[in-house]
């Protein structure tokens, strides 16, 4: 909390409550979606090249939590924008807020930097009463989304889906097409959440290991001594193995297309139809694990780009990622779309049904994950708690030339795996192991390749769960050049002080990352923290090096798992200032943000 | 003096990072190294606000203490305002017993974050209560020690050239996620006796408690406790000679709250 901003927020709120009074009837409707032209989740009938979006605050109540939410057209989420690949779109965004700037960022869209919608980097924001016209040619197709990049408007409801029709018909034709946009809802002010986390980092965590949970832990660990040892090890590190999500279902209601679980969003189908579901994680702090009991999901697209279909029972979606899946319900019954938060403190839910108003069976939530020494970057040498999906041979063999002293120390084994060996001439920006200081709590001594792991809490759960290794683009990458430069970045943070950053520094203490126009760069992320971070690079594709050779999946947001090392390639082909950050909004705002300058 | 020595002796252990974390001669280049020419953000709008100031206060102890020999009321709290690195801290504690305010200790400190878990603090302490007033310069550390012990260790030098030290620690033992057992103790050491303030040379007094709180809400937790306030060594003799209570175990009710 900054005191001035809190005061400003208070004033705004009062003023708006007064103003909404007369027209409050509409704003107080239980279904935030009713102001929309089409029902939530349903695509507009056709693509359009011109859109008018009015940003304002409306009093919206969901799950008995009332909020004067910044949003578009009085609805949360905002309207689904349907564009056509190849069109030049014009989006007129009018700021109807009383005394705050706004902005819309087109997440994952390739466009000129001036159209990216980040105040300070792309433009100077949209002032109250003003209209800004975003105009750019749409080069890509697929599922994306938009959100505000001003203050904390995104947290409170200023977000929505973008669907871009491909010029060629989609490779997987479907009878029905729904957007499934996941998000959170709370009446706690974002400034209060940050302030609470600064005072007590586990403020929203009520799932810690306690004396009461010791017998269960002991059973799982195979003895009281082992359980005690594990607890002492974590305690000695001054960290908590139960630290999964910083903000939890204690205050969040998880939404599916703006619907709380009991509102039960419905998507209709006729048995036997193929249904495309476009999942978007528009939450600010929550990863979701998604499944539809009784249905196999065919993953056909990740972050807007087609991938070879992967049949799965479940997948994890990081904040800001998108996945398109196809399901084919054959029975005449209701199927539950079940999206539990990674920390298992709540879930979003909707129903695919042959008739409106049906409700599927809601499955129980899984046990919450517990972090292990792998998450701490101790590799597989830890407390004997090797995770499935990671084996010794996956261990990061960083014997690459010039990739840093620390890694060399344990990298005297031969290099394995399918990571291409870089050319010896490659320039490497290696910051070295991050310092242990005010802003950094841990150094991953032995970061491992976790692309083959579906993520903490999903390993060996008896279901087929998607992993990053399975993503294979349907066409080879556009830029066949090998990288000429590697940028190694450590993801760092101090949970106790609630400070986040890269290389042991927060944003305000760091310089920009400069890329030469046209440069081909490998970004290598080493996650020294014990949490997942969805890392988003604006404006340029991140081509994940996941062992698929030339068929690397193109992504805009990449989950870096705790204690892991991964890399992706970037072609710096659009000049300008671009944002590069963790998409957990409170991590971003407290320092895990860099400016990338392409010139 | 002892206290000051203790603090000094503890510091290397509390503050130093492992040697391997320091540079080892390899040439490292960070792509995001601080730059001499700051980025010119459009409209001078930095994209994120990671330098905000925060304001919090906590009353760890706000309690009535009951014993056949006499009851007491005690508070112990602190507040801070500032950024990640630089903060102003206020600390205050005191005990009301037999209608008199004793053990009144109030500090205003500048606090600087110096390591992952510790802050260096320096400022002024005033002993303000119904006894004679003393003022001290204060210098110490505050933070989270290994195994998640909350720790404060402060050395004081008085306007009369005397030294003192206080060490305070506590630990949260989670019975459940809301029911928390907290052992806590505070020890005061002085280099010279000060009979008017019931202070003896050496380890002078202790105030300890075993508190069981229930966090109805994070910021509001009623508790029951047993507390002990007593004088030790020379301090004990001074108090006994004055006919005061040398040490009492009391049954205690209180509320822990913060904002």
From TrEMBL, chain A:
Q: Name one GO molecular function term.
A: oxidoreductase activity
Domain Plastocyanin-like: start-end pairs: 57-168, 177-345, 481-598
Q: Which residues form the signal peptide?
A: 1-37
* SUPFAM superfamilies found in the cross-reference section: Cupredoxins
Say if the entry is tagged with keyword Transcription. Answer: no
Q: One Pfam family for this entry, by name? A: Cu-oxidase_2
Output a single Gene Ontology CC term carried by this record: periplasmic space
PROSITE patterns, per database record? MULTICOPPER_OXIDASE1 (PS00079), MULTICOPPER_OXIDASE2 (PS00080), TAT (PS51318)
- Assigned keywords, A-Z: Copper, Metal-binding, Oxidoreductase, Signal
InterPro entries, alphabetized: Cu-oxidase-like_N (IPR011707), Cu-oxidase_2nd (IPR001117), Cu-oxidase_C (IPR011706), Cu-oxidase_fam (IPR045087), Cu-R_CopA (IPR006376), Cu_oxidase_CS (IPR033138), Cu_oxidase_Cu_BS (IPR002355), Cupredoxin (IPR008972)
The record's PANTHER family line, in alphabetical order, gives: FI03373P-RELATED (PTHR11709:SF394), MULTI-COPPER OXIDASE (PTHR11709)
Q: Which NCBIfam families match?
A: copper_res_A (TIGR01480), TAT_signal_seq (TIGR01409)
Q: What is the protein named?
A: CopA family copper-resistance protein
> Which species?
Gluconacetobacter liquefaciens
Automatic annotation (TrEMBL), chain B:
Q: Where is the signal peptide?
A: 1-21
Molecular function (GO) terms listed?
copper ion binding
CC annotations in GO = cell outer membrane
Family matches, as Pfam families: CopB (PF05275)
Which keywords are on file for this protein?
Signal
Q: Which domain of life is it from?
A: Bacteria
Claim: Ribosomal protein is one of the keywords in the record: no
In the record, biological process GO terms are: intracellular copper ion homeostasis
Instruction: State the protein's name.
Output: Copper resistance protein B
